[in-house]
Design brief:
The chain has 176 residues and is of the alpha+beta class. 41% of the residues lie in helices and 24% in strands. The strands form two sheets. It has a four-stranded antiparallel β-sheet. The chain has a four-stranded antiparallel β-sheet with strand order 2-7-4-5, with no helix packed on it.
């Protein structure tokens, strides 16, 4: 199509839409517009104020969150109840994706550190979507699976690096 006509007929405001935002996420980047529209109907927009808890360590996970705007602190508590920062996440980051497939206790807490808008995708909604609309749901699940697999691979590589560092440290202490 001629760029002139493309500009005239382009969806005005689409760049600000929830569907456009979702299309920028790695797990949803392969979805077509109609599949993004489907996804829009199963996610939930949540607003959090500064220092508001999103979930606490030990809570049973119910879904994942994507940060549309704002900032989220992920932290754990040590044996004395002191917070240990695990990550500070910003717009476009996501967390809690394991809860989509496993009903397990959260291994960390999440708190908004500024006014924050989150997009929640919850296991119950995803399972209902799979039942009602298997084709777009399968594509969503494959994208989520790809992202979880990538994160698992990254963790495995980091674990190998730590093992190598520990082995090197042990050799150094043995040689001293």
């Amino acid at each position: 199509m001629n760029p002139f006509w493309n500009n005239i007929f382009r969806d005005r405001g689409y760049e600000k839409s929830l569907a456009y935002f979702l299309s920028s996420m790695p797990m949803f980047k392969d979805l077509e517009k109609r599949e993004l529209a489907f996804l829009e109907h199963i996610v939930h927009v949540r607003n959090y104020e500064v220092n508001e808890t999103i979930f606490s360590e030990g809570d049973i996970g119910s879904g994942m969150y994507t940060i549309r705007s704002g900032q989220v602190q992920i932290y754990t508590l040590d044996e004395h109840g002191l917070e240990i920062d695990q990550a500070i996440l910003g717009a476009g980051d996501f967390f809690g994706e394991i809860a989509l497939t496993a009903s397990r206790p959260r291994c960390a807490s999440a708190r908004a550190t500024e006014t924050t808008v989150l997009i929640g995708l919850f296991r119950t909604d995803l399972l209902e979507a799979v039942r009602r609309s298997p084709a777009p749901s399968a594509k969503i699940m494959l994208g989520l699976n790809r992202v979880v697999s990538d994160r698992l691979l990254q963790c495995s590589c980091q674990l190998e690096e730590v093992k190598e560092q520990l082995a090197d440290n042990q050799k150094q202490h043995t040689n001293e």
